[in-house]
């Protein structure tokens, strides 16, 4: 069993930065971790994922070059550094955990169907 708690969201100006954290209660190092987001009235969207032991990372095209995912298993924490934020980045951000082998199911992304555990989200707002 794994519990995930996100934090770090908030209101930030267009072009600003935020760092989201996802803290685990349980053995974070057993899992690959992903970030998803959902804007009001829109479908959930995959953002990024990181393999077990941080050997590999993947990013959605809309955030590549602006967002960086990382993990510190000693602190049981996964981070999402978000730079050059835009209004389109607004939404609730969720971290999720999957079995390590699931990370390799798809070459260019990670999918919600593979996630076993989810946090409750943290809200990011970038006003236009």
Q: What is the residue-averaged pLDDT?
A: 96
Amount of helix: under 10%
Distance between the termini: 40 Å
Structure annotation, total helices = 0
The largest pleated sheet is described as:
7 strands, mixed
Structural class: mainly beta
How would you summarize the topology of this molecule?
Elements: E1 3-7, E2 10-11, E3 18-25, E4 32-38, E5 45-50, E6 57-59, E7 67-72, E8 77-82, E9 91-98, E10 115-118, E11 122-125
Q: What this model shows, in words?
A:
By secondary structure, this protein is mainly beta. The protein is 0% helix and 46% strand. The chain is built from no helices and 11 strands. Strands 2, 4, 5, 6, 9, 10 and 11 form a 7-stranded mixed β-sheet that branches. Strands 1-3-8-7 form a 4-stranded antiparallel β-sheet, with no helix packed on it. The chain is globular. The mean pLDDT is 96.
Highlighted features:
four-stranded antiparallel sheet; single chain; seven-stranded mixed sheet; 11 strands; 46% strand; 0% helix; 128 residues; mainly beta
Give a quick summary of the entry.
The chain has strands at residues 3-7, 10-11, 18-25, 32-38, 45-50, 57-59, 67-72, 77-82, 91-98, 115-118, 122-125. With 128 residues, it is mostly beta strands.
